[in-house]
Amino acid sequence: MNKNEKVDAFLTMKAHPMTPYINEIREIILDVSPKVTEDIKWNSPTFIYKGNIASFFMNAKKFVSLMFHKGAFLDDPTGLLQGEGKEGRVAHFENSEDILAKKSALQDIIRSWINLQDE
């Protein structure tokens, strides 16, 4: 897993109320492939593979909001990604149970990004 110490330090400093859930999602995404890395961009933890995959929206305090920068181009048969924007889509996670219920869909979306970038 490609956990980045800068992201750990950022989350510790930020003391965000959803940090435990953010960390659960980080582990799910980073476990999909060693190709996926993370860093801090736009004052937010961001997942990267041949471009920016997704960033947490740190202003949300009652749920975890994960914005997929090019989500409109990803295969999402489960409907995890929401929104009508030209490119971006958002996934929301309420708690550990919700994260677990959406885990497979989230992993598939990350795989979809990797496949799209490797074509």
What is the domain tally? 1
Largest sheet: 5 strands, antiparallel
What's the average pLDDT? 94
Poorly predicted runs: none
DSSP strand count: 5
Order of helices and strands: HHEEEEEH
End-to-end span in angstroms? 23 Å
Strand content: 15-25%
- CATH class wording: Alpha Beta
Give the name of the CATH architecture.
Answer: Alpha-Beta Complex
Separate helix tally:
3
Description of the molecule:
The chain has helices spanning 5-14, 19-32, 96-118; strands at 37-41, 44-48, 52-56, 64-68, 89-93. With 119 residues, the protein is an alpha+beta fold. The protein has a single domain, classed as Aspartate Aminotransferase, domain 1 (Alpha-Beta Complex), CATH 3.90.1150. The protein has a 5-stranded antiparallel sheet with strand order 1-2-3-4-5. Helix 2 (19-32) runs parallel beside helix 3. The two termini are 23 Å apart.
Compact description:
The protein has helices at 5-14, 19-32, 96-118, and strands spanning 37-41, 44-48, 52-56, 64-68, 89-93. It is of the alpha+beta class and 119 residues long.
Helices and strands, with pairings:
Blueprint: H1 5-14, H2 19-32, E1 37-41, E2 44-48, E3 52-56, E4 64-68, E5 89-93, H3 96-118
Antiparallel strand pairs: 1-2, 2-3, 3-4, 4-5
Helix pairs in contact: 2-3
